[in-house]
Amino acid sequence: MQYALSEYSSVFIQYIGQVGVILRKNGFNVAIDPYLSGSVDQLPTSNDFWRRRYSPPIQAETLTDLNVVLITHEHLDHMDPETLKVIAAASPACTFAGPRVCMPLLEEMGIPTDRLHALKAGVSFNCEGKLTIDPIPAWHEEREVDEEGWDRYLGYMMKWDDIVVYHAGDTLINETLIDILHGYKIDLGFLPINGRDLFRNRLGIDGNMNAREAAGLAWELQMGTVVPVHFDLYPNNSEGIAGFVNECLEHYPGQKYHIFQPGEKWFYIKMN
Questions:
Q1: Which of 55, 178, 185, 260 is the most buried (most CB within 10 A)?
Q2: What domains sit in the chain, N to C, each tagged with a CATH number?
Q3: Mean pLDDT calculated for residue range 134-158
């Protein structure tokens, strides 16, 4: 069967590692948590625990056409100065948006304040009429909110024409988050699946939902396609991918999922 172009819409996606993705649609380009260096590995406290499994699949200086960089929180593998300073120079019209706690840190990187936008849960961010972003609270591992109601950790619901994309950032799941997400019909969801445990907590590593929870969340919300992230870059902070695939196949038959390879480019297509 053949379909006319008017019968579907699409988002062009490139996976760049950890939870980082680049989304392109209708000439508007968004990067989320780009981490394209070895900053974490170079920390004095790394002690060989942190070792990238693969090199950055692209170079930050090649990102010359970004309109918005979304940051979910200030952890180094999500808000990396080495990456963001290069992107700021390569895409001089790009806006950098994220939790308010990130704004002073971005200024310290040399990014001018007029290119920064603090995001607050419950307050939509309209991007030049091309894209609407709803900041969603995240629990990493707790929800942290300051006295003025600004979250430290965020995910993002992106409403792009008739496609709805959810990027969870780093988060556990709970009934409050599920209730919020039930307010959306999610076509494409990016969920972290590296999990958590006592021994990683001892090392100061905040955890996320695990594979079983991510698969169950996608099924409950009737996501069109779920994309697991945060499982392949740092093996010591991962539970692998096999559990997620098994969970989908054995318990949620029919749930669509896509597993990216580093640097892979993919068209997500939604039939109208």
A1: 260
A2: 9-261 (3.60.15.10)
A3: 97
